[in-house]
Amino acid sequence: MRDGATEVKPLKKIWMDGRFVDWNDAKIHVLTHGLHYGYSIFEGIRCFSTPDGAAIFRLDEHIERFLNSAKVYMMKLGYSRKELREACMELVRKNGVSESYIRPIAYSAYGEMGLNPLGNSISVAIASWEWGAYLGKEGADGGVRAMVSSWARIDSRALPVQAKCSANYANSALAKIEAVSAGYDEAILLNTHGVVAEGPGENIFRVKDEILSTPPASSGILRGITRDTVIEFSHDLGLKFYRNDSTREELYTSDELFFSGTAAGVAKIKEVDGRKIGAGQYPITDKIAKLYDDTVHGRNRRHSRWLAAVGA
After folding, report:
1. What local confidence, expressed as pLDDT, does residue 3 receive?
2. Catalytic entry in 13, 164, 176, 270
3. CB–CB of 13/24 below 8 Å?
4. Active-site residue flag, 164
5. Nearest CA among 106, 82, 110, 100 for reference residue 13
6. In CATH terms, is domain 13-129 a member of 2.40.110.10?
């Protein structure tokens, strides 16, 4: 579906607190603390089919960010980097699906209720499911229609934006609902200073006069791992690249715009607020998108270190 929603079809197993359970047995209590107060952190990771079998893309970087988010929120996960990494790998093996989306999540568990979460234990789970391109194949091929949201991106003085916390995504959900209700495919959020931040679940890149740019971390974005991948690709392609702020009207006058993210991949933006972007040609975006697709599927060996082979 173009709006990113998809029916989650059951697979075989979900990892919960150190053991694999059947899909339908992965349950929590209705009074789970994290459900009520949004005190949970998560990651989104993708596994791809390659000539060498299923491989998880940039697994180590995702686990690192997961651990950093836990540190920011003072969560004691109880599992090492190695244990979490192996749990992701084993989950892919048990579910037997070579192309999947992997969702580690840690949350304050059932116990005490109230705003202070520190009296509750932390539960950790990892699920996976089959999920196509978040903004659809048309987003990758033809481009999506976006609108600048009336909702501002959350400020780092309100919530730590570099921690991937579930509470942050209420902000994203409001922007997404507004965009879809208005007939658009996706939203673009400005920060509280009125400059471009990111999409509800993606980073944004701009091309103008063959120069690639993206908002800096200081604009209140999440430092996306796919964003970092695109930046690496800009070096490979010999592009001029800058991290810099841009305004709403600079979106309109871009030669090319695209979203990047684990869920979305590299997705062209063909229109913002009813204004067509550029001439409808995406030569730089197309090069980056191809390089991304070749890399995650193991056809480009230059960045093979980013692929963690799952094995039989």
Report:
1. 58
2. 164
3. no
4. yes
5. 100
6. no
